[in-house]
Amino acid sequence: MSNELPFVNMRIRTRVCSGGVAACLVTVLTATTASAAPVRGAPGVGDPYYPGDGNGGYDVTHYDIRLTYQPETDRLSGTTTILATSTAELSSFNLDFALDVESVRVNNRPARVERDPADPTEVVVVPEEVVGKGEPMTVVVRYADTPSEVAVDGVTAWKLTETGALAVDEPHIAEWWFPSSDHPTDKATYDVSVEVPDDVVALSNGVLAGTSKQRVGWTRWNWRSVEPQATYLTFLAVGDYDVRYSTTPSGLPSVTAYETTLGDSRAAAEASIERTPEVVEFLEGLFGPYPFEAQGGVVSTGLDFALENQTRPVYDAGFFSRGSNLSVVVHENAHQWFGDSVSLGRWSDIWLNEGFASYAEFLWSEHVGEGTADELARYLYESIPADDEFWQVLPGDPGADNQFHSAVYDRGALAVHALRTTVGDEVFFELLRTWLDERRGGHGTVEEFIALAEKLSGKQLDEVFDTWLFTKGKPKVGPSGAEVRAAVAEPESYREIAFTHEQLAKRQ
Questions:
Q1: Bond into 117 cis (ω within 30)
Q2: SS3 category, 333
Q3: Superfamily, domain 38-239
């Protein structure tokens, strides 16, 4: 959010005196500068679901997070340095953070810290000197707390495990371990450095820049992410993990890790996660080049979901309780394009993340000969009764309470398939690659995606999107996949398309 300074009002005044026109006609240029007082940066970016998320008045470019964590006591302490640029003349600004703050410095000067009584995650920072518009800001925050004891709106997103802790969740997790502008539209690069006892490891995003020791019994793990990354996709996993380091066929570093408490699920987890480079190679053929500097995955306990943390998804062990599960690996790695590289512009745009990641599972199924998208779609469509609440949730704007409802995933995937059958494969895959290429490292909205789809297809697509994304109720049952493909040339025929997908037992 930008707060523009008022314009400078220029007036010309003419004064006549005795002594001749040439000598005495004086044109006086006066300037009245309507210089407003510095502003307080807004406490949020105005997201319709989470108005307090993110902060106005500045844009973050980099986070340097340097921490020490003791699993035995769940004590987290350290410093986060934020590099940002002001977008207004600031007398104060906000950070999104729930832990106890010891001190804040802005451009090397101590700053005053206040808590917003209406929202405990809003930390108001009042610098000693006003920050000019367009100026660089270096904000250093020192803090210490016990994250598992901190609740926001009755929720504690920090998760303790048998061997350590996880900072993994959506839509919010940063508040429990680093101060930030917590919205997907304000991406940054990251250095994450965490010191932990020698008997556990600290895992995060990107490339392992190295480990070091400064005192007996402790090891510091240093991770670097060089591509723009959203706050909720930045994670920390501390615990007893077996870690593997390798290089993918494309030359990228890969880090996979398995918590030592996985039990009988360990082999199935490895049989799934170690195929990540194969999955990524398949997805590159659909979506274009992989957008990041590293790959991998972490399997842990204590989540009950999987999350597409940038470069390194984290999976709950339960996904592998019945054997290998490539579907969830496909889903979370498809998010590296849809959700991570191109993030949602508002949390109401969640379909742009989950609908396409779920549809990638359809495409993988076709790839490995386990059913076409039409076959899978018909099965799901027919398995959900018309009176099921599933059909009352709108994937295009599900509401904050239903962001992760199964309809967002599965009806969302049906919407993607409806689009594919309406515009044809050539336009469909061109659309996906164009969307991802043009917005790489940025974000987008559902409306912007629809506009691009109409531009590339040359078709008016309101009806197909309205039916599958924004209209309650079960769309009419349609013909077989073969009949659908024969009807693609008729734009109105999308209402007769039936789709299907086998749901994951647990996912996010």
A1: no
A2: helix
A3: tricorn interacting facor f3 domain (2.60.40.1730)
Please, how many CA atoms are within 13 Å of residue 220, restricted to the half-sphere of its CB?
14
Tens-digit pLDDT profile for residues 217-264:
999 999 999 999 999 999 999 999 999 999 999 999 999 999 999 999
High-pLDDT (> 70) share of the chain, %: 86
N- to C-terminal Cα separation, the chain = 29
Q: Kindly indicate whether the domain formed by 242-284+293-325 is annotated with CATH number 3.30.2010.
A: yes
E strands, 250-364, where?
253-259, 295-300, 306-307, 314-316, 343-344
Sign for the CA dihedral angle at 345, 351, 354, 358 comes to: negative
Non-local (6+) Cβ contacts of 283 within 8 A are 290, 330, 333, 334, 336, 337, 360
d(Cα 507, Cα 316) in Å, to the nearest integer? 9
Annotated domain spans of the chain = 38-239, 242-284+293-325, 343-496
Cα separation, 78 vs 102, whole angstroms: 10
Using the 8-state DSSP alphabet, how is residue 371 labeled? -
DSSP-assigned states of every residue in 30-58 = EEEE--PPPEEPPS----SS-TTSS-SSE
- C-alpha 124/C-alpha 43 separation (Å) is 8
| Closest CA relative to residue 98, chosen from 25, 149, 170, 33 | 149
pLDDT in tens, 310-364: 999 999 999 999 999 999 999 999 999 999 999 999 999 999 999 999 999 999 9
**Side chain identity at 311, as an amino acid letter?**
T
Q: From 2.40.128.20, 3.30.70.270, 1.10.390.10, 2.170.270.10, which CATH number describes the 343-496 domain? A: 1.10.390.10
Q: How many C-beta atoms surround the C-beta of residue 122 within 10 A?
A: 19
Q: Which residue reads 């080049």 in tokens?
A: 289
- Predicted local distance difference test score (pLDDT) of residue 116: 77
